[in-house]
Amino acid sequence: MTTAEGTLITAADLAGNGVAGDDPDARGRFGVFGGRFVPEALIPALDEVAKVYQEAKADVAFLREFDHLLRTYAGRPTTITEVRRFSEVAGGARVLLKREDLTHTGAHKINNVLGQALLTKRLGKTRVIAETGAGQHGVATATACALMGLECVIYMGEVDCERQALNVARMKLLGARVVPVGNGSRTLKDAINEAFRDWVTNVDNTHYLFGTVAGPHPFPEIVRDFARIIGVEARRQVLELTGRLPDAVTAAVGGGSNAIGIFHAFIGDEGVALHGYEAAGHGVESGRHALTLTEGSIGVLHGSRTYVLQDDEGQTIESHSISAGLDYPGVGPEHAWLKDSGRASYHGITDAEAMEAFSILARTEGIIPAIESAHALAGTMKLGRELGPEATILVNLSGRGDKDMGTAMKYFNL
Amino acid sequence: MTTLQTVFEKARADKRAALIGYLPAGFPTKDGAVAAATAMVEAGCDVIEIGLPYSDPLMDGPTIQDAVHRALLNGTRIADVLRTVEAVAKSGAAVLVMTYWNPIDRYGAERFARDLASAGGTGTITPDLTPEEAGPWREFSAAAGIDTVFLVAPSSPNERIKAVADCCTGFVYAASLMGVTGARASVSVAAEGLVKRSRAHTDLPVCVGLGVGTGAQAAEVAGYADGVIVGSAFIRRLLDAPDEASGLTAVRELASEMAAGVRS
Question: Which residues of A are less than 8 Å from B105 in CB distance?
Fold first, then answer.
């Protein structure tokens, strides 16, 4: 398969599509979503990150360095794989997987962290903090910090530390300090709170390497732009392989970075449907889910106006998912905008449906996906049955399942 | 209802700084919060900030996190916050609500401004609402006749200080340090400079919060600020007390110490 070999990442690859509402406005808003709801103390730091990012994006030397790292370190471009046996459970639709699981560290998160680690150096900062849920963003951040000689502190909820013990060990081995967060729900949202507290205290020398397309402006834009390469490559690869654009693009949605990463290059392609799959956990009725876009309401969480799981008085409701990476009661503001504008649609996938797809992909294709990505696969199975054998569906296989073997052993009694 | 304006006029006449105490509604209990805040007023607090407990207090340190968590476990709701404001206002202090933005947003900003005014509240402090996002809230507050207090920080460049101060009524809240709430061994040296820079952009009183925990620190801050804001130190007294009565005594003692501090 021919790919983008030899093509330098261009400023255009990091930019929007020129579609109205595609890039945030001056206040960092996508429609009514986004913005900045943070202590005033952090505003100068956010302004600085925004300014330095805009300069970096226009600097060929920066783009060349990012491109070089993506190719020689992260393993880009990642291939697309046509999965014929899996397609039998997806109504016979032609299913193409974008193999982010094959990147270094095993998930799409590496794209954003390499970009932001370069940005950290450009900001003249020496210390990086990050939050992590599944541990993938933490591992990726620790990896980039090891590579670039940056001090690294990762905040991780105690509950997540337990269910992703392997990733905690990986981060430590990579030289990061992992701080277990024991307050609130002891998961991702509390790790984010704690990271913000660190940032406001140490902002002089510290960059908050935000891991998803949520948070205050400019994080939703920066993280999207660095993840955007997924869709840029995939769009080209699908065209080369099939001679046309896919009928649908699917991805799992927690905070939403892998989904935005693959959706974004297709936003201007009207004929391409965009489907995001959130974690329905034990099911909508159970109340134990992470259906932020499909069941949540508009509010403010972690610095951004977006859909939130909250009660009638604005208190955050704890989310649940078998997948730590989707276990988050907020979502990126651009997804909120894509939902309300109708450009993308979002659906729920239960723990059971995701684990079924997890096992099916392993048995039919010899690929063990991350449980996060298994939500997109389960959604693709449903969508394929609706669309039928004529359809082509591009799936973001955002990560590999090695980190989930503990969960799988318990779930399947292996 | 006592207004912030009267408080600061009176303090100025007395040639002293105002003392502002913070306590979340519902902590240690719903009634306990009213009793503690009333004791704080009786012992010399001019203004009380009633905290609206929120699940994700990302600019608060462990002490306030702990108190707020307990308040939420106690089932504290916005109606309880308003009842607390009403009860504490009867003590003669000016009463503000300090809250993250989302609970107001969800409750309905216009409705909250109106209900707070009806409860006898004099205004709000909203630490995560920046000038860019504050437009509608300022209008609703003005219509309801309540003050809007916003924060400046040591990191704020002069143009941000001006933008924030232009949104404030009542006073400007100067965060003394870069960090979360909580008592510190010493008051940040950044505080005095920030107060000075703020005065260049506003005629409003400038009050200093974050990290003030002793009478001596209150005296130091009172040397250059119009008001001294104390939160975590009061909460710490309540958390450490073996029972409610001794908690009240400890809070009263601390308020007296602080009140002497702002008068020295």
Answer: 299-300, 314
Angle made by CA atoms B173, B176, B181, in degrees to the nearest 5: 85
Q: Does B90 touch chain A (CB under 8 A)?
A: no
Between the two ends of chain B, the Cα-to-Cα distance in Å is 28
Mean pLDDT, range B63-91, rounded to an integer: 97
User: Which residues of B participate in catalysis according to the annotation?
Assistant: 49, 60
The DSSP output letter for B127 is T
pLDDT over 80 (residue A256)? yes
How many Å lie between the alpha carbon of B156 and the closest alpha carbon of chain A? 6
If you average pLDDT over residues A386-405, what whole number do you get? Answer: 96
Which tokens hold the place of A26?
A: 């001056």
B175 CB near a chain A CB, below 8 Å?
yes
Is the sign of the CA dihedral B166, B170, B176, B177 positive or negative? negative
Give the Cα separation of A202 and A373 in Å (integer). Answer: 35
Q: DSSP 3-state assignment of A6?
A: coil
CB A248 within 8 A of CB A393: yes
Place of tokens 């870069």: B178
Residue A16 has pLDDT above 80, yes or no: no
Q: How many CA atoms lie within 13 A of A38 on its CB side?
A: 29
Answer yes or no: is pLDDT of B260 > 90.
Answer: yes
- Overall average pLDDT of the B3-14 stretch: 97
- In which residue are the tokens 């993840």 written? A227
Query: Considering only CA atoms, which of A289, A285, A319 is closest in space to residue A301?
Result: A319
Nearest alpha-carbon partner for A161 in A320, A322, A324: A324
Confidence label for A7 from pLDDT (cuts 50, 70 and 90):
very low
**Calpha distance A352→A21 (Å, rounded):** 36
| Structure token digits, residue A254 | 């927690």
pLDDT exceeds cutoff 80 at A351: yes
What pLDDT digit, counting tens, does each position of A145-196 carry? 999 999 999 999 998 898 788 899 999 999 999 999 998 778 889 999 999 9
Query: ipTM higher than 0.90?
Result: yes
Instruction: Answer whether A313 sits within 8 Å of B130, measured CB to CB.
Output: no
Amino acid (one-letter) located at A173: L
Q: Minimal CA–CA distance to B163: which of B195, B215, B201, B219?
A: B201
User: What is the distance between the alpha carbons of residues A116 and A49, in angstroms, rounded to a whole number?
Assistant: 10
Question: Residue B28: is it exposed, middle or buried by C-beta count within 10 angstroms (0-12/13-18/19+)?
Answer: buried
Q: Of all helices (H) and strands (E), which one includes residue A180? A: strand A177-181
pLDDT higher than threshold 90 for residue A228: yes
Asked whether the beta carbons of residue A37 and residue B69 sit closer than 8 angstroms, the reply is no
Give the pLDDT of residue A133: 86
Q: What is the pLDDT of residues A360-370, one digit of tens each?
A: 999 999 999 99
Helix axes B244-263, B215-222, angle to 10 degrees: 30
Burial label, B244 (beta-carbon count in 10 A; 0-12, 13-18, 19+): middle
Cα separation of B231 and B159, whole Å?
Answer: 28
CA separation, residue B13 to residues B16, B18, B25 (Å): 8, 11, 31
Decide if A94 touches B, using CB distance below 8 A.
no
For residue A179, give Cα distances in angstroms to A155, A188, A198, A210: 5, 12, 11, 16
The residues, ordered by sequence, that sit 6+ positions from B232 with a Cβ below 8 Å of its Cβ are B61, B63, B64, B181, B182, B183, B213
Helix count (H) and strand count (E) of chain A? 16, 14
Q: Find the DSSP H helices in A11-157.
A: 43-57, 60-69, 84-87, 109-122, 136-148
Residues of A in contact with B55 (CB under 8 A): 184, 315-316
Give the whole-angstrom CA distance, residue A156 versus residue A280: 22
pLDDT band per the 50, 70, 90 thresholds, residue A132: very high
Q: Around Cβ A173, how many Cβ atoms within 10 Å?
A: 11
